[in-house]
Design brief:
- The protein contains 2 helices and 3 strands.
- The mean pLDDT is 82.
- Helix 1 runs antiparallel to helix 2.
- Helices cover 66% and strands 12% of the residues.
- The chain has one domain.
- Bound molecules: zinc ion.
- Zinc ion binds next to strand 3 and helix 1.
Length: 96
């Protein structure tokens, strides 16, 4: 079965149309962009939230009366680990 050569609705080039009126290149690009973009945004949101917690903990550093220095660094380490996990997840998404 021969493929249709037509103007791709995305790049406007005369190309082989794979599906949805898109050439292979644009179809791949849109697939890459569509899903991971929302996942990327979710990661960015999570990263921002955990970074904020880290900031807040830094601000609270002087109130060892409430939170001991040990506990504070314990919580910080957990948050830092979480941030690293988010970073790893995000770079994995960029690869795929
Ligand atoms: Zn195209």
């Amino acid at each position: 079965m021969g493929r249709t050569i037509a103007k791709c609705i995305q790049c406007r080039q005369e190309r082989e149309i794979v599906s949805f009126g898109l050439c292979a290149m644009c179809l791949m690009a849109s697939r890459r962009a569509a899903e991971p973009l929302s996942a990327q945004r979710e990661c960015n949101r999570m990263r921002a939230r955990f970074s904020r917690i880290l900031e807040l903990l830094d601000d609270a550093d002087t109130t060892h009366v409430v939170l001991s220095a040990e506990d504070c660094s314990l919580v910080k380490n957990i948050i830092i680990r979480t941030l690293e996990l988010i970073g790893r997840r995000q770079s994995k998404q960029l690869e795929s």
